[in-house]
Structure formats: structure tokens, C-alpha cells
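re: that chain from earlier
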Amino acid sequence: MSISERELYNAVLKTIHEMRKISPKRNFTEAVEVQIALKDYDLTKPENRFRARITLPYSIAKKDKIAVFADDPHIPPLRELAEKKEITLIDKAGIEELKSNIRKMKKIARRHRIFVSSATLMGIIGRYFGRLLSPRNKMPIPVGITDDIVKAIDMAKRTVLIRLHKSPTVHAKVGSIDMPDEQLAENIVAFVMDIKNRLPKGWRNIRNIVVKTTMGPPIKVELEAKKRR
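^ sequence. v structure.
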């Protein structure tokens, strides 16, 4: 059985329309989430478990929660973003403070969706904060010290972190309800296709795909799979 990206896109777009019809309006901007349930997939085998970063076509939210551990060369271009509160900037002095204030670091880990770090700081981040960030699947995206960290942050806004470990499901926030339907659909399709391509049997390992808002009811993506020779 196989499904083309166009077929998936059309099915997802139809699901988004249905989601908007039945999801009550809220006084805040809800996230849009996708959940993929797997079948015939043995998670007792270590080779079947994985973590991944999936980069989508569009930013997940207008106001994202990104924390950046920055070494000195990366700090100047980040100051404006920090002043606008688009990121939480943590320099070397901030890291030293957090090393002795794990409670504060836990709060930062809980409140931020994704982390970015100068590659030169990854060793110290792993040593002192790995036990907090790794279980949350939030180890930072490393950026080379000569690379453009602002571009890396722009990419982080389009990146979701997923982990397939104990439960045979993969889920992630892939957008927000105020995004155009077409952009939401493209993000969802990119997410689903990436997961499908990581599975040994592709579509045959996917039981169902569900789309929902944060507090809304789940809606199944109805796929008309075609048998291909």
C-alpha cells in the first residue's frame, strides 16, 4: 500500500477544515498537534527506537519559546532578539549561575520548547544540564562558532523534536490555529512523510494519523490507500 504526498496533503487539508468546524474558539491561540499511532513495530528492539529533529516548511508559532546558550562570538547578533524577547539568551555567566541553581534550570527546561547552543558550549551543557534536558528530548541544536546563529534560530522555529521510545506513537506540535490552512497542511505532510520514511515498512507501520488543537477533539486523517503493483 502506498500514498502519495498529494493524496496525503488533500486528506490533511480536509481534516484541517473539519478541525476548524468542530473545535470551539478559545481566547488564546491554540497549538495544532499531530499524533501518529504505529502498528507491527517492535519497540523492544533498540534499533527501532529513535530521536529525531524534523524541520518543517513553516514556523510552528509566531511567538516561540527558544533558549540559546551562546558563546562570545555568537552573542552580538543575538542581543536584539533577546531584547525583543524572541529568545532567552544564556551566556557563559548565565551558565555558571544555572550550574548552582538547578531549580531555575528546571524551570527554563520546562518553559522552553527547543534549545540552541554554540557548539563550543555543548560539552559543559551536556555535563551539567544533560540529565535535565535529555529526558525531555531538549538537548540543544549545536551551531558552529563560525556559523550564522540567527539562521540557526530561524530553522529552530521550524524544527520539532520527536522521540520514539516506550509507546508506539509519535506526536508533536506542528503549528498553531492562526496559521493558514495550506501552511498547516504542508507542515503536517512534512512531519508525517519524515516519520514514514524512518519506518522499516513505511505506510504499513502506520495505524492512524490524528490532528487536533491543544484542547480540541482528535480528528482522524482519512486516507484512501491505493494498492500499487
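The chain has a mean pLDDT of 94.
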